[in-house]
Amino acid sequence: MNTHGRNFRVTTFGESHGPAVGAVIDGCPPRLSLSEAEIQPMLDRRRPGKSPLESPRYELDRVELLSGVFEGQTTGTPIALMVRNEGMQSKDYEQLRTVYRPGHADRAYEEKYGIRDHRGGGRSSGRETLARVAAGAVAVKVLAGYGVHIAGEILSVHGVTGEEKIREEILRAKAAGDSVGGIIGITAIGCPKGLGDPIFGRLDAGIAAAMMGIGAVKGVEIGEGFNAATLCGSENNDQIDENSCYRSNHAGGILGGISTGEPITVRIAVKPTPSISKVQQTIDRAGKPVEIQIQGRHDPSIVPRAVVVAEAMLALVLVDALLEQQKYLVR
Amino acid sequence: MNTHGRNFRVTTFGESHGPAVGAVIDGCPPRLSLSEAEIQPMLDRRRPGKSPLESPRYELDRVELLSGVFEGQTTGTPIALMVRNEGMQSKDYEQLRTVYRPGHADRAYEEKYGIRDHRGGGRSSGRETLARVAAGAVAVKVLAGYGVHIAGEILSVHGVTGEEKIREEILRAKAAGDSVGGIIGITAIGCPKGLGDPIFGRLDAGIAAAMMGIGAVKGVEIGEGFNAATLCGSENNDQIDENSCYRSNHAGGILGGISTGEPITVRIAVKPTPSISKVQQTIDRAGKPVEIQIQGRHDPSIVPRAVVVAEAMLALVLVDALLEQQKYLVR
Amino acid sequence: MNTHGRNFRVTTFGESHGPAVGAVIDGCPPRLSLSEAEIQPMLDRRRPGKSPLESPRYELDRVELLSGVFEGQTTGTPIALMVRNEGMQSKDYEQLRTVYRPGHADRAYEEKYGIRDHRGGGRSSGRETLARVAAGAVAVKVLAGYGVHIAGEILSVHGVTGEEKIREEILRAKAAGDSVGGIIGITAIGCPKGLGDPIFGRLDAGIAAAMMGIGAVKGVEIGEGFNAATLCGSENNDQIDENSCYRSNHAGGILGGISTGEPITVRIAVKPTPSISKVQQTIDRAGKPVEIQIQGRHDPSIVPRAVVVAEAMLALVLVDALLEQQKYLVR
Amino acid sequence: MNTHGRNFRVTTFGESHGPAVGAVIDGCPPRLSLSEAEIQPMLDRRRPGKSPLESPRYELDRVELLSGVFEGQTTGTPIALMVRNEGMQSKDYEQLRTVYRPGHADRAYEEKYGIRDHRGGGRSSGRETLARVAAGAVAVKVLAGYGVHIAGEILSVHGVTGEEKIREEILRAKAAGDSVGGIIGITAIGCPKGLGDPIFGRLDAGIAAAMMGIGAVKGVEIGEGFNAATLCGSENNDQIDENSCYRSNHAGGILGGISTGEPITVRIAVKPTPSISKVQQTIDRAGKPVEIQIQGRHDPSIVPRAVVVAEAMLALVLVDALLEQQKYLVR
């Protein structure tokens, strides 16, 4: 199932070492100005090789618009976006043809499909997120027209906070041939009231799915999140003052699955990158035990690069809900 | 959007104080033995009034099968399940016609739809979960046929653990006219490998949506959850031993969005019930400030009754994925 | 698959001789005035026993609103509609438990599901259309608010036209223990421009599916239909005059899958009722040859009662497209 | 809405004069051998310029596989197919920037979206069918593995039958600067019993939508089609003989929306190509009356090239139903 959304429908395709990765956006409103140059910056934020914290892989990742835009404007027809894969070193992965890397989806894919493209993780590669980010960039553009803005940030890595300490923590993991996880916060401001469709199209449910659907994410919180479990109702309820404003935002901008107009606040837990060069026990396709040391150009922490992916996914959820809401607007 | 699932499609209907609540299940496999008596026990677990920890409301909640079963067996046609609402005291809610209760969806619904049924929360009432549990009971039956079993438990309430302490904590909140949240754990065992459809039909994403879609839930974790953010890759990866078994289950039974065959472990954070009898500040429909004290027969903690709802939702996700997987089975 | 539509989603349930048939409408706009009394007239038009042209079965078919309406107005939540089955004579059908009636879906259902409710055709009974008509009545109400009106009529039966001749033709078939088919025309006027979503959500495609999805329908035409195959482009094109009006409507109100604002004209071919009392060859479940004479209270022609079903289905398609179109309206 | 199918989901993109047209297939079973060379022949059948009956446009239409295939086999991940647009003469269409061609979707698109790509019809161009045929070629391959085969043929053009007469009729229309319509028959043999999901996923409804969704189609028949309206039940019912075989196939292989195992027989009416060089009355975007003579390289009849498109669409419907049916197979 490679389509996200009911209204702003994004279908992604592509493997890490195949010819291309891309997305088709179906349902983008017409007459939105759009160009490749407006999509590229979010892809550049996602690109590896920008600092010692990231994989040194060199990926140019130039997006090409194949359809849906005419004389600089969207037409309401599907927008196809494609990035050619280049600079792949597929033979680096030959040793992984028959071996299952711990913490990766290798074995799961092979058991499910009876076949897998082992090169760079194939479809389960983080490279697939490139297509989500490209589509997300279009969603961000749509949202801007409604005054909605999204920003993500690293809250902690391996339990430490603060930019300098986080940097040190990641480099320490890298030096040790290991990796570290962390927590990302994403906030959307300017979101109109009324987004989200109870019971099974709740906005918080959509956000949870979008976030947990990012490869390395193992937890999602909205508003107070797990902390709400330790509060009393009198502490957690957001009372309303005499100016009709909420006095607090423990709810994280969503009540009953519907946006309240307050900032939407989300936190996600990102696991440590499973690719590490320390020795690990695993098996090969035949069930034979194997010791594996994963060499190659991996991220010691996926957290920094995952921020823009989380922003993109939140944008996709919100623009989808915005379009859904057009149908029911109290006119 | 009141339908859950792509294969085992459950559409729920009904308001707290309307004539009935119910569900239509479309896509249930044929020739499954099924009766009202098999559905009732899960509804009984959800029913209030069974202990001082719960609302003293008396709800009989007898389920009626309206279609889809012939001579004790499902036929592959839609299964409609209905529970009549009885014993409602709608006039208790008259004061809430124009006032928005803090922490509830009252204001969000009215801003979205321009109208709301204020009696008992209407569609946003916890009573709606009755329909999910009824459908979930059918899903549990289907899963049993595949050897899949689900069990939930209270892990903590207001930060305390242990059955007796939890009981005390809830009664203390009740006595104070307040409420408390908590954490629930749900586990599925016996789940086949290969469930879940990357990229946007991932099993973990589906679970996250289903759980966050329960009214009071503010956080979802799978496997290590937020703790994974504090681990190294060498700690978090589940290595595979010489018998092809995973040595650990930090992943919570899901890798790359696909089930691994290990137990699926989920934790959810439940916020404190927003209905409390302490004085709260809010406004009415006209924007006028109002002090509110919510009287009535409320649960001092929704946690005990939410366990069966969480089980039902996990069952719905798993049976939907199981049916999806039929299409791709390596034959 | 028992749900119709993407926006005005109608899920039907129920068998001919089960406890009830009904529908859940999800996505109906809020604040529409609605009552059982407004739905009943379309059901009454569909009801048998009103003239000698129809089955003499007595069905009261009183609709009950179970949810989604509060103080006479829709709330935006699911609208559940139910009609209890009454006056069934299930034992009439005992002989059909193991025998497949020619022209009916008996064998197809049993081969697909491995089980079937043989009483009155079960789910494949024409009685299921009752649920579609109930939902259609709500759709008609929504459409009226947009100035859209739908009307159907019998164009011919067994090749003859004119009300009196058609009546005679049906009574002749009845007397002969046989049945006859016919053609129905359905027109929608007042339909806004711009409905329909190319490529796979085209309005004409949606209409074709809705019509062919009525039990006895074997052909669908829009505008010129099959006659277009005999025309030149210069005859079939609808030219536009100096007042921006189409000079003709060969297109039947739809170009490129999008409504033009002209009347939408549809014709459908209805096959003769398969239930006849003439002797027919068939087999039973075990494959044994059987001679069958179907006794009972059948319609000698389904055409008269199918008119309102076709209207209901067209209404469902149009209201679904109308809601979809809200999202893309040039504002 | 540019996605077809629930299981074998095909999303198409691309305009006539944009960079490319293509399709993404999501849900293709894994481990099917597949290459560009297997897809190309159906595209070649659709390509213009092969005879004087067709547009003399030269389109190479080489398909490129962008994803989903690894070492010659499908992997279960999305299959992206792309054909670059080449040899377009966009300036030919400059005069159509503001003028609406009669019988085309020009005005409908502009009224719906407020913008349109006028070059060659943009998204409403027959060129879009290239993407459907590419996806259809993959569907045909899947079906072959189940023993299902599809063949289409021209039954008549402008009322005449027989290959030589049809050829003459088309050339006569061409010489007159006009165009002609016709009727196509499509048959699927070897189709398993049990495909199709009542009530709204009926196989005949799906076929009707797929056929009516082809640009120029105005009518669809299954089995006896409109002729059924002139028959008695005793003539139209397919009786079953002592070998459990149907004695006839008036139903066209579908009863109750479910395949019977008999050949599925479909007929469609194709309207005359709206592009003609005869003088026609129309208006421009400003509402000013205009006389138009459409020059360029058009098909005098779309019927010959539409055969393969109809085959492709039937293949998409059948493979989608086949995969759906996997879930319910009586095991």
TrEMBL record, chains A, B, C, D:
Picking any one GO biological process from the record gives: aromatic amino acid family biosynthetic process
**Has keyword Amino-acid biosynthesis?**
yes
Known catalysed reaction(s)?
5-O-(1-carboxyvinyl)-3-phosphoshikimate = chorismate + phosphate
Q: What class of enzyme is it?
A: lyase
How cofactor binds (record note)?
Reduced FMN (FMNH(2)).
Required cofactor names: FMNH2
CDD domains reported for this sequence: Chorismate_synthase (cd07304)
**Pfam families this protein is in?**
Chorismate_synt
Q: Which GO terms describe its cellular component?
A: cytosol
Task: Cite the entry's keywords alphabetically.
Answer: Amino-acid biosynthesis, Aromatic amino acid biosynthesis, FAD, Flavoprotein, FMN, Lyase, NADP
Give residues annotated as binding NADP(+): 46
Pathway as given in its UniProt record: Metabolic intermediate biosynthesis; chorismate biosynthesis; chorismate from D-erythrose 4-phosphate and phosphoenolpyruvate: step 7/7
Output one GO MF annotation: chorismate synthase activity
EC no. given is: 4.2.3.5
Residues noted as binding FMN in the record, renumbered to the chain: 123-125, 256, 271-275, 297
Regarding protein family, the annotation reads: Belongs to the chorismate synthase family.
Q: What does this protein do?
A: This reaction introduces a second double bond into the aromatic ring system.
The molecule here is called Chorismate synthase
**Source organism:** Methanosphaerula palustris (strain ATCC BAA-1556 / DSM 19958 / E1-9c)
Source gene?
aroC
